[in-house]
Amino acid sequence: MYYRSGRKRLDLVTPGIETPTQKHVKSQMKVESFAQLSEGEAATQAITAFGEARTPPQTVSNVHVMSIIGQIEGHIILPPQNKTTKYEHVIPQLVAVEQNPSIEGLLVVLNTVGGDVEAGLAIAEMIDTMSKPSVSLILGGGHSIALPIAVSCKYRFIASTATVTIHPLRLSGLVIGVPQTYEYLEKMQDRVIKFVSEHSTITQEKLRELMFRTGELVRDVGTVLVGVDAVTLGLIDEVGGLSDALRVLEKLIKEKHAKPEADNSLPEIPTDGGSPLK
Amino acid sequence: MILYTVLPIEIVLEGLEQERDFIDIQLQGLTITVEPVSLEEAVIVRIISTDPRHYLNPQLSPGRKIRMAQVSSFTTAML
To answer: Of chain B's two ends, which shows fewer C-beta atoms within 10 Å, N or C?
Structure first.
């Protein structure tokens, strides 16, 4: 039996001729979620399943933390050995952050090896156009497509030992189903360069130079920036850690509160039937 | 799709051809795509919803395991 988008539907009953009763039973398949488990049981399962300890939050925070880890997964579901950040989940989360009145700021924690260009840029474009304050923090490594995401935040931090790798798109770039032409990759690369240079103080020329610098990476071209290097080049604002990032975020939130709200009210419709935009 | 990553492409895409069985189920009133890992358990792959709040719910985040149980003893007997 095939279901939406050609996916196979789970056949829980023995294959064979289906009686109407069986069909009926199948549709009643009950799904039990973690929500129905006791809190302790759920926590234990979270540890065994993901190696992740999740303690229930004690107080309600006004900051939403978004950790972007592993590969940024775009249009193709990556094989299970990859840890991925799914962009189709991140995008609505950003919408929720922007729209939820109890969330006042966004902290983006980056520790990623790169991923889909379009998906990464989409996340960066979303964060960039949010009205709520955002702070990014690069820990460990924020490579390739992580850079546009980092610079899309209003203020960015990098840990002193964290690294950012800047390299051309075609170092390990891959095009599936599209002819891999030089011009095409060049265009994609220009989008990344343009976004980063527009959102930081680095020039397009300098960024391109870093991308194609030879001698630093063992096999190919590119540059590895460690902590303070990224700050000197103007890509990142400051070297710092968690407390610094939260302190700045709180400050940005306070500043936003102090500023009077922008006038979003609609223009009054004139009674004489003229255009409201006149 | 263009991957822009520091990892070698063969490591990232290893096993891409392998077919994975995804099913769409109804859970708490919304549709989610899951990958069954055993007869009783499935891992959430993605949620299909237009309500942004659903995406902030940690119980529904991708990678979480859920338990699928059948209600009818009739079907259990059939198995």
So the answer is: C
